[in-house]
Design goal:
Strand order of the largest sheet of chain B: 4-7-10-13-16
Number of helices of chain A: 11
Oligomer: heterodimer
Number of helices of chain B: 1
Largest interface: A-B, 70 and 70 residues
Strand content of chain B: 35-45%
Number of strands of chain B: 20
Radius of gyration of chain B: 24 Å
Order of helices and strands of chain B: HEEEEEEEEEEEEEEEEEEEE
Number of strands of chain A: 38
Largest sheet of chain A: 11 strands, antiparallel
Largest sheet of chain B: 5 strands, parallel
Distance between the termini of chain B: 23 Å
Shape of chain B: elongated
């Protein structure tokens, strides 16, 4: 393939096989990496004198595999990964003085003055994910599963079809198991094709369609309650028998009243999603109180949604949900003791209002619409619960603006966080005639944002007919999936790194305090591959190898653990950068930009008086309109720019995630009166006179909601030197940073009423057969009466506080044990399950 | 157009400046003509190895022979050279961690901002420095590695090897013919 000067070769995601690749000077290689990486394999020769561009402006995520032996001379600025193990590679002089990526060759020459900038290859990073056939001969049992080990996937119905080849019929999610072995996922049916990890993950984590409240692979707390197990009344879990939960139990199908009763949960964690679908019909669920659905008078609304510039009681994060910087936790008081309390923080869903779906006619599981006995969610009777009503239940008008927002922040470890933000404005308006509800307007605009997903949507129904229902902005599924996968990999890497570090410190402490004994030897042998392994039944052999064993674990942390984590972090942030909105984005929704003038009555009269005529005219007319829009933000960095990072550097910049929506319907009813003098008649004539225009009624119902969650990096104030982690900091690993999460929300729903505004015009009216035209010049105007009645308003610039979070561990280097003599083995202190038994007494649970 | 849609290449004409350099059959469009029949895919491998403790994914330069960083070259990430020949840094060159089975030589004022793991003592010119620890006598026997298996599409080999301008097509190797000037090729992959 020869790309001549000033030509462009575009390559979409996928694999390419070519004999020769030549990019001549001023030629361009454009990578359209929409659905993944470009892989290009070459057997003949490579001549590279062009340049590389990407459609999205990101660093090229491509891989060149060269199978030939001819010299590869990169004489254009190369960006990407070059794999040419049998060829000499020259990174030649280029005007930019820079090549970027990773380069492998038999011999490599970097020409004078050239800078080589490292970008980790996603191709190689992906090999860290389960399914990889990467081998790591130094410690195969451990590192071959470094990241995937924590994937918490359990394969079922396994059959071994080869030395390293297993096939399974099913997969489910289980609690993470330290030290688990790598698995490959192959399709059933005998073709042996390997299933990408992402596909399996997507299948496993896919939520069942339909309104399934229980999450099949979450925690036990998310599983439904067994209806047959509902027992006596309770106030909390302590009132119930072991294994039972004190849960709210809906006493009616609409869940208007609840009571607390003990019940057992179905353990749904290992059940396939599909099989959980029937649970909607078989099980009961916890439900939330019905308050907040609305009320029949303004006072009640005001009490629920106070007009205030500061968050009300519902808009604050309860103290028990707020994060607090914990002191450094000693490694010896961790893990084996089961010390997990206070490990991270999870605000849960801090929310207000109800999510409303005008198209589906009901509410999703996020709302307070409770479910009992497996019945589908009851559509909200917004006509009855409307916040603004005129008339009674037989005849009347109703308007119900509904706002909904939710924020959830969760963080566990270094660089491991997740944010979920939802904001919605919706409005329904109509009338009751003989008690029958006629809904005129039914609309919503909402923005949902998570770490990896932006999803905005608007829907509009007019007299029951769906006028518009379309997403406005939606992250492509492939990008969201790759971002999610990167985030999961990062989470797994940070968890694994922590385990490695804790193990390394505990082993070291055991070595120096209690000596190396059989239990410790057996533990290490079970988790690590040790050359010249010791005989764990021979105390002499254990002693001889103990230091080697401890140093293996130490190296595992100092080198492999840190590197793996950095790579996973780099990959995760690479994906996040692709989603960066660089600040707030506004979207005017065409689907909600509607309006139309109308005329109800119109009459005119010409009164001839000699050669002239007097014209009198009056009309009743108006217009209705609707405007709507959305905002969203998923940005990183103070200036909204991309974070600067590399594999060995910490990402710079704090994230902001936010969104908002507004909708503003209005109706105007006007009247005009004209009196003038002219000549001619109805078919041909002209008159001049005065015209008065009066606005009889203006009704506007603006509804808006806005939400923002952001992180600020602060000093955590803890004394590292006085902790168990005193030592040399490992670069790019957070040690003295606390992350302060705050949020803001703001919403309003107003009723704008106005009347008797108007103006007087000098006017000229022209009649030409069936055509009539009025020309106006304003003489005077007046404001009339107008007032805005707040239906609901809350929030503002005062943030609510999710608290400050900092990792309870610090990542400092562990020195070698060379020269350190172990203590005499203490047979009463076994390593592993009962490790450092005395320290467990101080364990924080 | 249908022919293009069936193929793996689409074409967007953007102007007329220079020739693409392959034979001309149909002015203005690309054409595919078969140059061989489909054959069985060929299984190939690409293997690389890096120094013990250095994963391929964390290496910016990986070699199995000689690494030459000429004068003033800058490489700010780990370098692995499992070849026993040498790793050289020229005058005023900069590098990060180096793992080299062969001798490491730093010319005048060259600097390693990191560690050096090697088998024999490094040679340092005037003003050259290594800021991190130097580990000598390291074994490079227990290498990390990466093997990529490649299923090279059939139809390549022997007398039927594709000529220049050929690309793999779903029905075999196809020769790319066109003589329109300045084009933008939009190639679709064999595998996604």
């Amino acid at each position: 393939m020869n790309v001549k000067s000033r030509s462009t070769l575009s390559l979409s995601s996928g694999k390419y096989y070519v004999r020769d690749l030549t990019l001549e000077p001023q030629s361009h290689l454009k990578l359209l990496e929409i659905s993944g990486r470009v892989e290009l394999y070459v057997r003949g020769t490579i001549t590279f004198r062009g340049d590389i561009v990407t459609a999205n402006g990101n660093f090229p995520d491509w891989f060149v595999g060269y199978l030939g032996t001819s010299r590869v001379s990169l004489e254009g600025s190369f960006r990407g990964t070059l794999f040419a193990p049998n060829a000499d590679v020259t990174l030649a002089w280029v005007p930019s003085l820079q090549h970027e990526g990773a380069f492998f060759g038999k011999n490599i020459e970097v020409t004078p003055g050239i800078k080589v900038v490292f970008h980790p290859s996603s191709f190689l990073i992906d090999q860290l994910i389960p399914g990889s056939t990467t081998t790591f001969p130094s410690v195969p049992n451990y590192h071959s599963t470094f990241v995937g080990c924590q994937s918490a996937l359990k394969l079922e119905g396994g059959t071994q079809v080869g030395p390293n080849d297993f096939r399974y019929r099913g997969v489910s999610k289980i609690a993470p198991t330290p030290g688990c072995d790598a698995v490959r996922f192959c399709r059933d049916g005998g073709d042996g094709a390997e299933i990408p990890f992402g596909e399996i993950e997507a299948k496993v984590t896919a939520k069942p369609t339909g309104d399934v409240t229980c999450k099949p692979f979450g925690t036990i707390a998310e599983c439904p309650l067994l209806p047959d197990s509902v027992g006596g009344l309770c106030n909390s879990d302590v009132d119930c028998a072991a294994g039972m939960t004190c849960a709210k139990h809906c006493t009616t199908t609409s869940c208007e009243t609840t009571e607390l009763r003990c019940a057992a949960r179905l353990d749904c964690r290992s059940i396939a999603a599909e099989t959980l679908l029937p649970c909607d019909n078989d099980y009961i669920y916890e439900c939330t109180p019905p308050e907040g659905k609305g009320a029949t008078d303004h006072a009640y609304v005001a009490s629920r949604l106070p007009n205030s510039s500061s968050p009300g009681p519902d808009a604050t994060v309860p103290p028990e949900k707020q994060a607090a910087v914990q002191p450094y936790r000693a490694a010896s008081a961790t893990d084996f003791c089961g010390c997990t309390a206070g490990r991270g923080f999870d605000t849960g869903a801090v929310k207000q209002g109800d999510f409303y779906d005008p198209v589906a006619g009901g509410k999703d599981e996020e709302s307070s619409g409770a479910v009992i006995g497996g019945q589908a969610p009851t559509p909200v009777d917004r006509a009855s619960a409307a916040k603004l009503k005129i008339g009674n239940d037989t005849f009347g008008l109703f308007v119900d603006p509904l706002i909904y927002h939710k924020a959830k922040v969760k963080a566990d470890r270094i660089d491991d966080f997740s944010v979920d933000v939802k904001a919605q404005g919706s409005l329904i308006a109509g009338a009751k005639v003989f008690g029958k509800v006629i809904t005129g307007v039914d609309l919503d605009a909402h923005a949902f944002l998570t770490n990896c997903q932006i999803d905005t949507k608007a829907a509009f129904k007019l007299f029951g007919e769906t006028v518009a229902s379309a997403p406005a902005v939606h992250t492509p599924d492939s990008l969201a999936a790759s971002c999610d996968l990167a985030a999961k990999t990062l989470k797994q890497a940070s968890q694994t790194l922590e385990n490695v570090m804790v193990t390394a410190r505990q082993a070291r402490q055991h070595f120096t305090t209690f000596g190396a004994d059989k239990s410790m030897c057996q533990y290490v042998m079970a988790h690590y591959s040790v050359q010249s392994p010791p005989d764990c039944n021979d105390p002499v052999s254990i002693t001889a190898h103990s230091r080697q064993i401890i140093n293996i674990i130490r190296q595992d942390y100092n080198n492999f653990g840190i590197n793996e984590f950095r790579l996973a972090r780099a990959k995760a942030y690479t994906q996040l950068v692709k989603l960066n909105t660089h600040g707030r984005k506004k979207v005017d929704l065409d689907a909600l930009s509607l309006g139309e003038p109308f005329e109800l009555l119109g009459a005119s009269k010409l009164i001839p008086i000699g050669p002239i005529s007097i014209e009198i005219a009056a009309s009743l007319y108006g217009d209705w309109g609707l405007a709507g829009g959305l905002e969203y933000e998923l940005s990183v960095g103070e200036d909204g720019g991309p974070p600067g990072f590399s594999v060995v550097e910490r990402p710079v910049g704090d994230p902001k995630i936010g969104g908002g929506a507004y909708i503003n319907p209005h109706l105007n009813l006007d009247a005009s009166v004209y009196a003038g003098v002219g000549i001619g008649g109805d078919f041909l004539g002209v008159s001049i006179g005065l015209e008065a225009q009066i606005r009889l009624v203006h009704i506007g119902l603006p509804v808006g909601v806005d939400m923002l969650v952001q992180r600020a990096t602060e000093n955590d104030g803890r004394n590292l030197a006085a902790s168990d982690y005193a030592g040399t900091l490992i670069p790019a690993m957070a040690t003295s940073e606390a992350y302060h999460w705050t949020g803001k929300w703001k919403f309003h729903a107003d009723a704008e009423l106005g009347t008797l505004s108007g103006q007087v015009n000098a006017a000229a009216r022209v009649h030409f057969f069936f055509y009539s035209k009025t020309f106006r010049k304003k003489i005077a105007d007046w404001a009339g009466i107008s007032e805005t009645f707040p239906i609901a308003s809350i929030g503002g610039d005062v943030p609510f506080d999710f608290g400050r979070f900092a990792d309870i561990f610090a990542y400092t280097e562990l020195p070698s044990l060379d020269g350190v003599e172990p203590s005499a083995p203490d047979a009463t202190k076994a390593f592993g399950g009962n490790f450092v038994g005395d320290a467990c007494a101080a364990c924080v649970k | 157009m249908n022919r293009l849609h069936r193929g793996i290449l689409g074409v967007t004409l953007v102007g007329a400046v220079s020739a693409l350099g392959v034979a001309a059959d149909h002015r203005g469009w690309l054409d595919f003509s078969a140059v061989s029949s489909a054959r069985a895919a060929e299984q190939l491998q690409l293997k690389i190895a890096t120094a013990p403790g250095l994963r391929p994914v964390s290496v910016v330069l990986g070699a199995n022979g000689v690494i030459d960083l000429r004068d003033r070259a800058v490489v700010a990430a780990p370098i692995s050279n499992i070849g026993t020949v040498r790793t050289d840094l020229g005058v005023d060159a900069r590098a990060a961690n180096i793992a080299s089975a062969g001798r490491v030589t730093l010319r005048d004022r060259a600097r390693v901002d990191g560690t050096v793991v090697t088998s024999v003592s490094p040679t340092l010119g005037n003003g050259a420095s290594i800021t991190g620890a130097t580990t000598l006598g390291a074994s490079f026997a227990d290498q990390d590695g990466k093997t990529i298996s490649i299923s090279w599409p059939g139809g390549y080999g022997g007398a039927e090897e594709p000529r220049a301008g050929s690309v793999w097509h779903t029905h075999g190797w196809r020769r790319l013919r066109q003589r329109e000037r300045e084009v933008a090729l939009h190639a679709q992959p064999v595998e996604r």
